[in-house]
Amino acid sequence: MDSINNNYATIIRNEFYKYLSFWKWYLLSVIIFISMSFIFLRYTHNVYKSTAKIKMLDKNKDQLLMPTAQNIFNNNQINLENEIEIIKSYPILKKVVDELNLTYNFYSSGEIMTTRLVKFPFNFVHKSLYNPLNEKIEYNIKFTEENILIEYNDKTVKFTGHSTIKQNHDLPFDCSWDIDNIINNSYTSFTLELIPEKIFIEELKKNLSVSVLGKKSEIISINYISENPKYSENIINSLIRSFNDDGVNDRQLVHQRTISFVNERFFDLSVQLDSIETKKQKYKLENNFIDIESNSSISLELNSKYNEELFYNENQIILSEMLLVAYEENDYDLLPANILLDNNSVNELTNEYNDLVLKRRNLSLNLGENNTTLKNIDINLNQIKSNIISSVKSYILQLNKRKQQLSNLNSKFNLDLNKIPEKEKVLRAIERNQIIQEKLFLYLLQKREEAEVNYAITEPTVKVVEYAISENKPHYPNRSIIYFLSLVFAFVFPSTIIYLILLFDTKIHSRHDLENKNLNIVGEIPFFDLPETEKVFTNPDDRSIISESFRMLMSNVRYLLKNDTKSNVILVTSSIKGEGKTLNALNLALSFSSVGKKVLLLGCDLRNPQLHKYFNYDKNVPGLVDYLVDNKTEWKKNILHPFVSQNLDILLSGPLPPNPLNLINNGNIDILLKDARKTYDHIIIDSAPTLLVADTQSLISKSDILIFITRCNVTEKDVLSHISKVSEESETNVGVVLNGVGQKNSYGYSYGYRYGYGYNYKYSYNYGYGYGYSSDDEKS
To answer: Is the pLDDT reported for residue 648 higher than 70?
Structure first.
């Protein structure tokens, strides 16, 4: 487990340092994104959020009625969702727009930004809200020390002085300003935006947020966002007033309908009472009735009791018939309530009918007549109305039956009163009718007074918990979040680019790439930005980075040497051209010679020799090719000593042959190596790249050590699979050198190398092939 954790830690550390190498990119990205955020915040308006809270009150609560068991145990059933829709309805918002005159929008104009104002700092009077184009119109008003310039619809109107009053123009407003205020004010340019009412209300709906504070709460939160907090507060407070007034008006309509109903019935009752009084007066005069003697008998007492009940019964019949007429004539209008008809079913249906009528009125303001919701409400209203009429008729039938029963009982007691003169009974009948009409008249008069009092003291619909208050800090933009996000993007953006670069990058860049293939790394050679000749390790006593790196390479190569051989053949190759194979072979040879080892450096790259350029020799001097063509040639005579060290012998490849592979495989090089092993401690072969030609494949079996040279930012990662395959299939010890470590611009750096490995024939040898050739120099 610890090993796994260490591996993960190593991987993370390597990835961190890999991205850290691009620190300049990150620094530039941070500067750019922070600058963009600063500019954005500098030229972006601060937007403030204003909030108000209101509590909905029960609209069905009657101020004058005493609390009953039904009212005490009945939970408040306020539908807050409906109330929210009413708050945001077109009629309510129209009242707000009309109250605050919001179709006129005021702005102060700066060089870059415009700022919303609640009103202009100068005298401004609007004359008309008429907008013939039914679209937004902008008026740019500019005050100078001499005049006023107003631009709109590609027109410019110039006014003499600093007032438009009493000057001919067709503008929907007048304005004026004192010269002292113009000089002292920081803003002298303003914008007036005239917006059609319908368009502005639609925008107001979008920007207005109304919500319930909690599931069980009766408090509604109203929010509005604007650049100017005072502007938002005015809108919210006006909205609360308009909504409350609308609710109060709805409740007053019910009381007003009751008052109107009673007033309509007063006239009929007054006429009937006058008629009864006249009839009674006439009857008394005709029959000489001055007073009615009281009857103390039990029959009269019982008769009086049933008469009272009969009076009440007939009173209910008359009241029911009057209400029935009103119900049948009603067409989606409010019904008279609180008449105290002694029938709970009728009273409850009447209240339910009035609630639906109010709801229909509110919804019809925003919805069409063909809307499904309105149609459903109409169906419910018709059904409730039908139920009310049916209930009243049923109640009248019950009253009539009771009346019949009471009449029968009354007739029974009237038999006991047969001694009373018939004329006196007629008079009592007249008086009874008079009493019924008087009681009904007084009852209606009482209900009218109650309705008028309720109308006068109608409670508000809402309780304002908190009027509009604006936040001190801007709601948008949030500076901390924007700067934080800019920093996040400042790292994410370059990281994404770097990740994509690394994802599609197929080059070797570090030791880690070699370790992933389990290759035996024998050395890492730093990148030196020096001329080619200065990269050669010529001074044995040198303590530079170049010398120390190749001494380290020499020490590591020693571990690969076979102890059972007298001399060791070290084959230095690379996968492709341009990886520094020749320079590494030369410096490795110089490293061994600097410690007293006898070393032969053999230039075996017969197709594209590069060794000669490090000591300014002609590449066509006699060398290895001469011996490979004819093994009778003395190869030791062609050995060169271009350096101070006498322990290093160099045999160049010589003239370019037409058939390098045949020369290497003709057996002469085996004779040369066998002979050289007797004299030299180490034989280092500078061979051709393994992936481009087959020459090196023939030399691997002849070597004790095979050293592959790879180069940062040049060698493809796919080449490592080839090296790994050679290492597994070959009996020769294989080591890998990473060249060019620490080079700047490691990713995307261009060396100008190509993978082509061709040559042109110039020089000719007469040994049966008839070809000669030359090659471009290799860059190490």
So the answer is: yes
